[in-house]
Specification:
Helix content: 40-55%
Distance between the termini: 65 Å
Structural class: alpha/beta
Number of helices: 12
Number of strands: 11
Radius of gyration: 31 Å
Shape: rod-shaped
Largest sheet: 9 strands, mixed
């Protein structure tokens, strides 16, 4: 025979209330039903928990000691249950999110602001990373959700498209090519180019677009951070090939951008999760907010 929560609650209530009658009323039980629960607990433990007399029942020495221990167990259990209900109701929880730097700096903050407004107790721990690392972190359990790109189907990941981003040519102030409405790869190939480093998704797209045009991509400068790339363009050192959504472009109004007419210059920004794994309620809440918020800002 195993110990049940009903038995523990009946015993703890009887000790705290000082009588079986008051404990039964507190638990909305009849006194005989409460007595049955306590006797069952005594039989399972092989201990007398109460000394019974005509004047009532008093806890034994063993009963008093166990009442304190069981009380702590019940209190901790109640806290765990309350916490689980808070999470289920999306009132609390922590989400680990891996995200591309360009998205983290531009489109993610409005989504997090909306999440905080709707669910202020949900915490989001943001890890910005290159595209390859975003997928690895989700598959490895370091992140519950990811915002990134995939070069092809991945059996371990569920992918849902959030929006499409495109790479654009970023021109230094006063550049002669600003007269053109578009800058195709064969024009850009004749210019010094500023690109992100080879590990980035932006660089991979640029290399693919140039290869499809039969051109070799030879950057004059490479930068790990978008802000560095924009600074190099601003200094007149070359034409940048960067995401249209990059925050640093919005903060540099003197720089002009031009579309690059090449299908490979578009990238699908995806929300990633582990295939076969259920999202926590907090992560579900974040996913819903991303679906509602990110496309709006991406279009703008």
């Amino acid at each position: 025979m195993s110990i049940s929560l009903r038995q523990l609650r009946a015993f703890a209530a009887a000790v705290e209330a000082g009588s079986f009658g008051r404990a039964a009323a507190r638990l909305h039980l009849s006194q005989p039903a409460l007595t049955v629960q306590i006797r069952g607990l005594e039989e399972t433990l092989g201990l007398a928990l109460f000394d019974r007399s005509a004047r009532g029942a008093r806890p034994t020495e063993a009963g008093r000691a166990l009442a304190q221990s069981f009380g702590r167990v019940l209190e901790e259990l109640d806290q765990l249950v309350a916490g689980a209900r808070e999470q289920a109701a999306r009132r609390s929880g922590t989400v680990h999110l891996a995200v591309l730097p360009s998205v983290a700096a531009t489109l993610l903050p409005p989504a997090l602001a909306r999440l905080r407004e709707a669910h202020p107790a949900i915490r989001v721990l943001v890890r910005d990373a290159v595209a390859r690392r975003v997928g690895e972190m989700v598959k490895g359990g370091e992140a519950e959700l990811g915002i990134g790109i995939l070069s092809g189907p991945d059996a371990e990941l569920e992918a849902e498209m959030l929006f499409e981003d495109e790479l654009v040519a970023v021109l230094p102030p006063g550049h002669p090519l600003a007269r053109r409405r578009t800058l195709p790869p064969h024009i850009l190939a004749q210019e010094p180019l500023v690109l992100t480093d080879p590990g980035s998704s932006v660089r991979a797209l640029a290399e693919r677009a140039f290869a499809e045009a039969g051109l070799a991509l030879r950057p004059a400068y490479e930068a790990t951070y978008m802000s560095t790339a924009v600074a190099l363009v601003r200094a007149g050192l070359g034409i940048g090939v960067l995401p249209a959504t990059a925050l640093d472009l919005r903060l540099a109004p003197a720089l002009e951008t031009r579309p690059i007419p090449a299908a490979a210059m578009r990238r699908r920004i995806l929300m990633l999760s582990r295939r076969g794994s259920s999202l926590s309620p907090a992560a579900e809440a974040l996913a819903e907010v991303l679906r509602a918020t990110v496309p709006v800002h991406a279009e703008g």
